[in-house]
Amino acid sequence: MKKWKCTACGYIHTGDQPPETCPVCTAPAEEFVEYKEKEPALETRGSKTVPSPEKKPETAGESQGAAKEKPAPRPPRQEKGWRRTFSFLVRQMVAHHAHPIFVHAPSGVLPFSFILCILAALFGLEALSRSAFYALIYVLVAMPLVLFSGYMEWQENHDAKLTSLFTGKMVCGGLVTLGVIIMVGWMVNNPQVLTTNGSRGVFLLVHLGALAAGVVAGHLGGRLVFR
User: Fold this and answer.
1) What is the predicted pLDDT for the residue at 35?
2) Which residues contact 48 (CB under 8 A, 6 or more apart)?
3) Nearest 10 degrees: CA dihedral of 220, 224, 225, 226?
4) What architecture is the 97-225 domain classified under in CATH?
5) Number of separate helices (H) and strands (E) present in the chain
6) What is the pLDDT of residues 7-46, one digit of tens each?
7) d(CA 227, CA 99)
8) What does the pLDDT read at residue 83?
9) What secondary structure does DSSP assign to 47-82, as a single string?
10) Contacts of 192 (CB under 8 A, 6+ apart)
């Protein structure tokens, strides 16, 4: 039975043919390549069986009539200055899973802020409204790190494949950021928005929409982690 690997998310499918769409990231069948696990060859030495050393491929001079060797590829261009530092930081972020770490900050604070907003609207408490405002400020500060680290991980680990899963994550991340910007600006211009009967219902709907977008983004991200 053959194995097929999705080049977008790394999902492994077992079957004679690749699936029509990846069950994890919805990439089409064209994004699958045949996957073969490398197993070291074994040889017997006395009473022990050990991996045999890899044989070096024959060169053109060693095999009569063999094709000429291809020229070695040109080494990658060396980056200097701030570009080299930036590339190093990006590699470290991706290697140490910075995006899942950063995304937990707004994911935990945004529901807490929503609860504070509901309580402030129900009981008219200014202290709860201020606490919700500071929580939204925290989310607003964290979102650029979330979006940037997610974009770089998409570039490095998923070959920038624009499948419906990654598109959905980007749209949800943008909706969360837009919703938080609207709410912070609203509370700056009208600090009593949650303690008066004016438009607090609309404010809570905006907050609920941002929270729902964050939940969907977390669900899509979980499909990549727990595939």
Assistant:
1) 87
2) none
3) 90
4) Up-down Bundle (1.20)
5) 5, 5
6) 999 899 999 899 999 999 989 999 999 888 765 555 555 5
7) 17
8) 85
9) TEEEEPPPPPPP-TTTSTTPPPPPPPPPPPPPP-HH
10) 126, 129
Specify the DSSP class assigned to residue 5.
E
Q: Are 82 and 183 in contact (CB under 8 A)?
A: no
The number of angstroms, rounded, from the C-alpha of 33 to the middle of its chain's C-alpha atoms is 22
Name the residue with tokens 């729902």: 212
Residues shown for the chain:
227
Alpha helices in 96-199 (DSSP H): 98-123, 126-157, 164-189
In the chain, list all ranges with CATH 2.20.28.10: 1-36
Fold of 1-36: Rubrerythrin, domain 2 (2.20.28)
Q: What are the phi and psi torsion angles at 157 (to 5°)?
A: -95, -20
β-sheet bridge partners, residue 4: 13, 34
Edge-to-edge strands, sheet with 3-6: 12-14, 3-6, 32-34
Question: Phi then psi for 160, rounded to 5 degrees?
Answer: 55, 35
- Parts of the chain belonging to CATH 1.20.120: 97-225
Residue 157 to residue 140: CA distance in whole angstroms = 26
Model confidence, pTM: 0.77
Closest CA to 118 of 201, 227, 214: 201
> Which residues have a Cβ under 8 Å from the Cβ of 29 and sit 6 or more positions away?
17, 18, 19, 20, 21
Residues of the chain predicted below pLDDT 70: 38-80, 227
